[in-house]
Structures are given as C-alpha cells and as structure tokens.
C-alpha cells in the first residue's frame, strides 16, 4: 500500500494532517519533500542571477570563436 500525506515538522518529528490507517508500531518508509521551499529558493536564485546580469555582463573569459570557426568541418 502506497499513499501520500501532507504535514508539518514539529520539534524534529513529523505531524501529519490526517491519521494513517496502519497498526501501531508498524514500520514504514518515509520520504520528506518540502512543499513551498523549493519554488521559493528557485525564484530567489533566479532573481539574484537577474540582478547580477543587469549590473554587469557575465563573461566566461574563454576564447570567442567566429561563426566560420564554429561551423568548420574536417
């Protein structure tokens, strides 16, 4: 039986929003995925990158090849 529940972390433990229909002391496998944290961190990182890009161009410092050099075939 696989199922998915939502809940909160409280004092280092998990508190589920609804009860689980399993016997007491039944061993389970738990995977925890933060719900709101991932999109917020992604948006924050993206806004930081946009701010950096607008303040000065991002240069790799590498060689700059011409179109002919990039399309050169042997």
UniProtKB/TrEMBL annotation:
It comes from the Bacteria. This is Uncharacterized protein. It comes from Adhaeretor mobilis.
């Amino acid at each position: 039986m696989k199922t998915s529940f939502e809940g909160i972390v409280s004092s280092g433990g998990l508190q589920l929003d609804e009860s689980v229909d399993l016997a007491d002391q039944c061993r389970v496998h738990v995977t925890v995925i933060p719900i709101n944290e991932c999109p917020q961190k992604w948006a924050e990182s993206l806004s930081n990158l946009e701010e950096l890009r607008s303040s000065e161009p991002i240069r790799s410092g590498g060689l700059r090849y011409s179109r002919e050099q990039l399309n050169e075939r042997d």
